[in-house]
Write a structure and sequence with these properties.
alpha/beta; Nucleotidyltransferase, domain 5; 6-stranded mixed sheet; 5 helices
């Protein structure tokens, strides 16, 4: 009899030049949760804080939001997000996925309204909610494939 595989825990990042939004979620349950925002300096976060999150949440894979223009062209931040994803994979050796994040920032405002308004921002900055929405989108795309 085959054993059931354990849920796969993901850590998702909304990469920015000054801030890195972080969320986590379970693929099997299609659940996600905004966690925190880390400072970014010279296109890099404090890797010890990233590692702490990986350990704390027992992460098995990563998703990094890929910022694209509406016409599918890339921008300067797109290459930085790709480079960050490459660094994640290189440092930790875990599967790393890129997911189109177009409109995630605009969707965050609607999402926050749905879950209780901007009071939530005092607890967790908007970048973490953007990462949560990117992860939700990734899970939805994976379940439809």
């Amino acid at each position: 009899m085959a054993q059931a595989t354990s849920p796969q825990r993901y850590l998702c990042f909304d990469f920015g030049e000054k801030r890195l939004g972080v969320a986590t979620g379970l693929r099997d349950q299609m659940s996600s949760q905004a966690l925190t925002v880390l400072a970014v300096v010279n296109d890099q976060p404090d890797w010890s804080l990233v590692e702490k999150l990986i350990t704390e949440w027992r992460v098995e894979a990563f998703v990094v939001g890929l910022p694209l223009n509406m016409d599918d062209t890339e921008q300067q931040i797109t290459q930085k997000a790709r480079k960050f994803a490459g660094r994640l994979h290189g440092r930790y050796g875990l599967p790393t996925h890129l997911h189109d994040e177009r409109l995630s920032s605009a969707e965050v405002k609607d999402y926050l309204f749905e879950i209780g308004g901007y009071k939530k921002l005092k607890q967790t900055p908007i970048d973490a909610y953007a990462a949560e929405l990117i992860l939700k989108g990734f899970f939805e795309q994976q379940s439809s494939n």
